[in-house]
What we know:
Elements: E1 4-6, E2 13-18, E3 21-26, H1 37-52, E4 58-63, H2 74-80, H3 91-104, H4 106-111, E5 116-120, E6 124-125, H5 127-134, E7 137-141, E8 145-147, H6 161-169, H7 171-180, E9 184-185, H8 186-192, E10 197-199, H9 204-216, H10 220-235, H11 238-252, H12 256-267
Parallel strand pairs: 3-4, 4-5, 5-7, 6-8, 7-10
Antiparallel strand pairs: 1-2, 2-3, 8-9
Amino acid sequence: MADRIFDTGTEDLQTEINGGVMTITLNRPDRRNAMSNPMLEGLVASLADAETASDVGAVVLTGAGGAFCAGGDVKGMAEAGGEGGNSPVQYDARVHLQRRSQRDTAGKLYELPKPTIAALPGAAAGAGLSLALACDLRYGADNAVMTTAFARVGFSGDYGGTWFMSRLIGSAKARELYFLSDRVDMDEAARLGLVNGVFMADSLMDEVNAIATRLAQGPTIAYRYMKENLNRAVHGEMGECLDMEAAHHIHCGRTEDHREAAQAFVDKREPVFKGR
């Protein structure tokens, strides 16, 4: 039984906290967990809770029913006559809402001061792939696949996928995967560095939960600053990164967690971190 169930306000997204790990499950298996507005709103709320909740040390994002996320609901778009359909919302307002949604979901996964993990039980496509790439770590089932998919449906891409992928595997390969929209199996994804590991489908969540629990029980203050350092290193100027590392390192050295870890090293035992 979960330690806490977070009310997402929708059946399209389920969120629970157990052992310091917030597990967020995209839950539209009949549509391969394609995004819906309620799903995205629930994801925004869940990540906002995770950001400051004292009982959350790591976040796992996954999907129900053997898929991760098919991205936008293309079937729903077709039924509505195209993306946005006959929406009464003006173009500029729709752009603003899209920007806000992207920053509050993919942007938040990337910037959240806690480790985030995407667990892919199956296909991650389009904006679903973008959400996975926004996470710090990605693990896939051996039968999972990835595809940008956008070119196949006449879209240029959203939810930060071009930014995240270019930084993970380089611009040239990212361009190939976006322009051609080919499917990438997990062997190739691991070779490229798009996933950190591949597990048998029936053991994926056990393996990912073990990693997430290890992170949740780790030095959370150090992880906060470590993640900020790593994010800044991707696009920051070297001197700025060195200065930030220095400030963060000295700050961590003043924490109770550091003192406990140093004593545990002397005692030849595992440290017990408390996030202080």
